[in-house]
Every structure is written in structure tokens, then in C-alpha cells.
Amino acid sequence: MLLPVLLSGLVLGAAAPASAHAVLRATDPADGTVLRTAPREVTLTFTESVGLLTDSFRIYDPDNHRLRTGPAGHASGRSDTARVTLPARLATGTYTVAWRVVSADSHPISGALTFSVRERTAAPAAPLPERTENPVTTALHTIARYLAYLSLALLLGTAAFVAYCRPPTTAHLRTPALAAAVTLLTATAALYLLRAPYEEGTSPATALALSSLTHTATTRPGLLLLARPVLLLLAAVCAVLLRTRRTRLPRRATLAAAAALAVGLSLTWSASDHASAGLQVPAAIASDTLHLLAMAAWLGGLAALLWTLRPTAAPAGLPASVTARFSRLASASVAVLAVTGVYQSWRGLGSWQALTDTTYGRTLLAKLAAVIALLLAAACSRTWTKRLARAAAPVRARVPEPAAGAPVPEPAVRGAAPVRARVPEPAAGPPLPPEPAPGPAPLTQVHLLRRSVLAEAVAAGVVLALTTLLTSTVPGRAAVESARQAPVPATAGIPTASVTTIPFDVGAPGRRGRVQITLDPGRVGGNFVQAVVYGPDGGFASVPELRVTLTLPARHLGPLDTKVTDRGGYWAADAFTLPLPGTWTLKATVRVSDVDQVTVSAPVRVTR
User: Fold this and answer.
1) What percent of the chain lies above the pLDDT cut of 90?
2) For residue 482, which of 559, 578, 563 has the smallest C-alpha distance?
3) Surface-to-core class of residue 438, CB atoms within 10 Å of its CB (0-12 exposed, 13-18 middle, 19+ buried)
4) In angstroms, how far is CA 292 from the centroid of its own chain?
5) CA distances (Å), 331 to each of 205, 275, 308, 384, 445, in order?
6) CA 499 to mean position of chain CA atoms
7) How many CA atoms, within 13 angstroms, populate the side-chain half-sphere of residue 463?
8) 589 sits in which H/E element
9) ω before 29 within 30° of 0 (cis)?
10) Would the pLDDT of 579 be above 80?
11) E strand or H helix at 601, and its extent?
12) Could you give the CA distance from residue 521 to residue 468 in angstroms, rounded to a whole number?
């Protein structure tokens, strides 16, 4: 347990900055600039390759009317760009560009920028019934991802448990294996249907549209999702052939085919998530695949062991050799998880700061705590496994020698048959019991082992849930890089201000207060942002992190990060551009300790 900690310290301490998630690097025209002549196109440049949607760009003129533009595309030979052609003649005034693309790790990202032709103007509000993200689509997509991870672990872990641990009977494991396969198929189908609505931020009702289904089939995540049912079908065919009496396949060939299918299934995850983008992509995909396989062998095998330890499955107890083999399998899996987990943490974080200052880092810390709880439960299981092995080991009885020395052979008679010497019985005492043979472990110790394995299974479920959250969270390395982007200088506004006070309550004693956010002047254009946190006693409070964003749901814009920084007692941003008027959603995320944070929101009106 100390080795991964030491390795993580060495690796994270020497990490160099790089991107592992798409971040907007540059725009042409630049955000907030005033141009003498109208541009012919808008080009966005990202830190990695991005995928385009049918509605990647929405451009509004100074009167807040959407412009008709051609389809979005990449710049010549540049997959890390997004470009759209503008109409030939643009009127004088300020234009708003809302964009949405899909990063190479399959997660959608969005934002907005403004540019002006000849002079800046303010656009009137014209609300539209649109949302930045659809909460139902996002929730369904997250649930489907979790079920897919869970079913993969159960399916591959059960197969590894049967192949390596060799339980005396496997008939009772067919039910959970079949349930895992059906769940994986169902979750994969749901992910495929929800892929287009998840990317575009629309309702799940659009999932069955023919255009959405065909678009998903042309993307890399969609093709990988389509590959899963094919691999599961091949696995089912192999299982049927193995059960057929006429088929006699060598054990090594069977294990090689099963391993190839397991690697293929794992690749459908690692080739479409964070490992598929950023630095060292081949090594990252290999590491992520090994991480998934080790996770499945340990956690899925744990579930198979728990299912086998049921009294109805093993009424006479379980041979100690089965639990001993699983202990060795779990130990090897933990070693692989430690090495690959350290590498993935370095790749996703890049610095110690990201470990505590980003959502990805804090989720990773929570996962580490759950893994430690899982290892403690595993240590208890290992203790009971050793006791079961000692209890089930055969004990050889020592045959006592006769009390009166060695027997004297009788004299042989010439020509007569030899007479064998008779070994006298012991003088006293009951007859010696026969030598015991290895058998099942005591039922009481099996019951205690069952309890510790159940605790492991609960902790494993928490680990899988946090893993699902990590795969849908922007890596800390990318979040830090995005926060370092230099703000664009804004113009001076009218000397008025908009002040919004939002109460918050983390839920722990003394962890409540209010945050006061000021937008100066609180109008379209450049604004000065100031945030002050007050404690429960009404005095100034110092917090380790504060994030303030604004979203305009009516225009499908945001969230726009104000990028406030700590100024010693208050948080502020000197230049933040509000591109459109309307009712914005002001959201503040207040972190009061290393583990306690809360997000609160309130509407704020932005005028011309």
C-alpha cells in the first residue's frame, strides 16, 4: 500500500503541463475584438482533435437574429479546429458566436464568444426555449454508463473466477453471468441511442431520430458501441461450443480466445474515453485496458466468490483451494491496478494543485478513499482465507511404537514356509482414527469469510460509481489549463452594478453562510466581477476555492466561467464579457474544506 503512494508522489511531483481534454486555445476573430471589415469565417482552435455536430455553430447578429451559415468543418488538415463560413455582408455591430463540439475523449464541450464589426453595439433580448444541457439525458446517460461498467466487471470477473479459481461446480454462476451479459447489451443499446442527444444537449425524445442514429454510427464512440454486441455474440458462441460434448478444444486455446474477447471488450471503453486523447495515447489506452481487466478480475471475481459462498450454492462448505486461488488473483489484480492507476492519475492531473482544486482531483481522492476501504475489507478476507486453508489441510496421525521394544521373529523350520512376525497392538487406549483427507472448510469460518466478502462487494460498488463519475468529468490537467487562459480586455461600462447575494449551507455545523457577487456594470459587454464570502456570524470568511459561472438558458449559452481569483479576502475578475442581455443563471461553487463544497445558483438580469 505504501508503494503506490510513493510512486504517485514521484510522478506527480515531476509532471509537465499538457492537455488531456479539449480546451479552446485560440479564436479567429478573437473574443471581444472590434474589426474594421467583416470576417469571412470564424475559426476555433483547440488543444486536441474535436468532432463536429450538425449544430456546432449558432451565430446571432446585432439584432439578435440567428444568421444562416453553412455546415461546420475543419480547417484544411487540422482536426483540432472548427470552422464556419459567414454570410458575405455583415452589418455594423456586435455578433455572438455560440459553439458546441465533442472532444476526442467523447465528451461534449461548449462556449461562446463575441466580435464586433466597426463598432460595438448591444443586442436586444429575444428568449428561446432552449437549454444548455438536458438534465434527463445527462442522468440517463450516466446511469447507462454505470450499468455498463458494473456488468462488464461481473461478466469478465465471473469468467476469470471460473477459469483460475476452479470451483467444484459452476452451474450456479450461469445466472449472474447471463444477467450481466443481458445488462451489458441493454446498457450499450441505451448509450448508443442517447449518444446524439448527449452530444447536442437535447431531449431523450430525439434519440430515435434517423439522423441521430446515422450520425452516431459515423463517430468513433458509436462504432465502438456497435462492436460490443458483436464481441458478446462471439463470446456466447464460444460458450456454446465449450458446452457441446462433441467439441474438444485444448484448454490453452480456450483461454487464449477468452482473453482476446476480454481485451476487445475493454478496448471499447478505453478507446473512447480520456485515454484516447492527450499525451501518450497508445500507452494510455494499454494502461486503461489493463486497469479495466484488473478491476473486472478483482471486483467481478469478488461478486462470483460471494455468490459461490451462499449456503444454497455450497451447503457443505467451499474447498479452501478456491479461496486461496482467488486470494492470489486478487493480489495480482491489486498490483496491476496500483501501477496503472498511478500512471492514469499523473496523466489526468499533472500537478498536486489539480488534486485539490479541480472536481476531477476531488473525485479521484474520494475513489482512493473507497479503494482503501476495499483493501481493508480484502485484508480481512485474506486472513479468513489463510485460516480456512490451515483448517482444511490434512493432519497426519503418528502411529505409536509398541510398549515393549521391537518384536522378535520366530525361528524358521527347514522346509517350512516363512512365518511373518506379528506386530502387537498398543497396550491400551482407543483405536487410532484414520488419516483425514482434504475436505471442505468449517462452516463457521466460511460464514465469517462470506461477511468480509460482502463488505468488499459494497465498497466495490462505490468504487465503480466513482469511476463512472471520473470518466464523465473534465480531467484536472485540462481544467487547470483552461483556467490559465488569459482573459480578453473588456471595454469600460456604465458606472452601475448588479449585486446578488446567495445563501449556502454545506450541511455540517459551522459550514453555512452567504456569497455576495457583484457584476459591474451588470450590462452587456465588459464587466468587473467581485465575490465576497460571509460566514455564519456575518463576518468575512476565507474559503480555499470559489468558482462563479453564468449561463443563459434562453440562448443555449454557457456556462461561461468568470475565472475569479483570490485577491486576499475577496475574489475578483477584472475582465469578463457578457455577450447578450436576458435572465442569466448565476452559479457559485463554494468549497469550505478539502472535502466539503456546495453549489448554489440565482437568476440575474443583464440589460443593454
Assistant:
1) 9
2) 563
3) exposed
4) 11
5) 46, 25, 20, 15, 21
6) 38
7) 23
8) strand 582-591
9) yes
10) yes
11) strand 597-606
12) 41
Given a contact cutoff of 8 angstroms between Cβ atoms, the answer to whether 341 and 287 are in contact is no
Q: Look at the chain and count its residues.
A: 608
- Report the alpha-carbon distance of residue 510 to residue 508 in Å, rounded: 6
Contact 354, 361 (CB under 8 A): yes
Of residues 537, 461, 527, 457, the one with CA closest to residue 491: 527
Question: 538: Cβ–Cβ under 8 A, 6 or more apart, which residues?
Answer: none
The rounded distance, in Å, linking the Cα atoms of 142 and 140 is 5
As beta bridge partners, residue 548 has 588
Which residues, 6+ apart, have CB-to-CB distance to 231 below 8 Å? 261, 264, 265, 268
Give the DSSP letter of residue 164.
I
Name the one residue in this structure whose C-alpha cell is 459515423: 218
Read off the DSSP letter of residue 81.
Answer: E
Output 607 or 38, whichever has higher pLDDT: 38
Tell me the CB-side half-sphere exposure of residue 237, using CA atoms within 13 A.
Answer: 8
Residue 496 exposed, middle or buried by CB count within 10 Å (0-12, 13-18, 19+):
exposed
The amino acid that residue 158 corresponds to is T
Amino acid at 30: A
pLDDT at position 289 over 80 = yes
Beta bridge partner(s), residue 58? 98
Give CA separation, 490 vs 31, 242, 574, 608, in Å: 10, 70, 9, 15
DSSP state of 397: P
Amino acid at 557: L
In the block, residue with C-alpha cell 462487494:
457
Q: Shortest CA distance to 153 belongs to which of 455, 465, 385, 371?
A: 465
**Residue with grid cell 447536442, as numbered in its chain:** 200
Per residue in 40-93, pLDDT (tens digit) is 999 999 888 888 888 889 888 888 888 888 888 998 878 889 999 998 888 888
Give the sheet arrangement for strand 565-566, strand by strand: 498-505, 512-520, 525-534, 571-578, 565-566
49-53, 68-72, 103-107, 450-454 — which is least confidently predicted? 450-454
CA-only gyration radius of the chain, Å: 33
Tell me which amino acid residue 194 is: L
Q: Which of 435, 434, 310, 445 is nearest to 390 (CA)?
A: 445
DSSP-assigned states of every residue in 491-548: ----S--EEEEEEEE-SSTT-EEEEEEEEES-BSEEEEEEEEEE-TTSSB---SEEEE
Mode of pairing for the β-strands spanning 73-75 and 78-85: antiparallel
Answer yes or no: pTM beyond 0.70.
no
Residue found by looking up cell 475436505 in the block? 439
Q: And the C-alpha cell for 570?
A: 475577496
